[in-house]
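Protein: Bacterial bifunctional deaminase-reductase C-terminal domain-containing protein
Species: Mycolicibacterium madagascariense
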Amino acid sequence: MVYVSDADAATELTALGPAGSAFDTDDDARLAAFYSYPQDLDRCWVRANMIASLDGGATDDGKSGGLAGPGDKALFSRMRQEADVILVGASTVRIENYSGAQMSLAERRERQQRGQAELPPIAVITHGADFEHDAKIFTRTEVPPLIVTSRDSVEDARSRFAAVAEVIDASGAHSDRVDVGVVLATLAERGLRRVLCEGGPGIISLLIENELLDELCMTIAPVLVGGQARRIAAGSGEAHTRMRRSHLLSDDEGYLYTRYVKDE
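Structure follows.
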């Protein structure tokens, strides 16, 4: 017997157990089926891939990598393989010590068969382009990164990084700030429509506020971190965007891998 209040109808619950079809993370065809982008895109489709602890922390000891397990790392690699471009904020590049995307010969051939470049570039959103020249984003990459900055900073950034990166002006109404809408329009013009955003919280929040996030792939790590760990999205603006579940996966470690798509 289920008690139903006068004001509310009962909600049907589904138990997610071991009855599903299991497969290994090296089954490329199965993973591709779960994480391929929509076909024939005429605009950027923005996917965010983030991880959080059970208590909502986006970092462990200051870095998101501290939460990851083998399964999460495999899905991280698969999503990079599917993307035309990897979008990330400057703070995340510094904290996580980002380098360029690395892929095997087989992965490169698969991308070429889909009509993509062998490797996706890293596009870094930064208002001031304050980087060191020996950062891995410049020194450990086969593809020069895209430094996406403000109009006020673009000339200085080009004078400093022209030899190691392509610098792009992506300002909107404010010359000292990057406009995420302009960023996506610029990427779309270049044919980089399969966008994978890897954070940080400020970039994710901007995408949410401006209703530009098409899907969120969220890994829930079986870890408690407590303390002052940030959320996966942190900004001043708010939104209420309804999402629908695309799939849920799990593994023997207890990680939960979710994919939610904007409900339109």
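Remarks: Residues 70-82 form the longest helix (13 residues).
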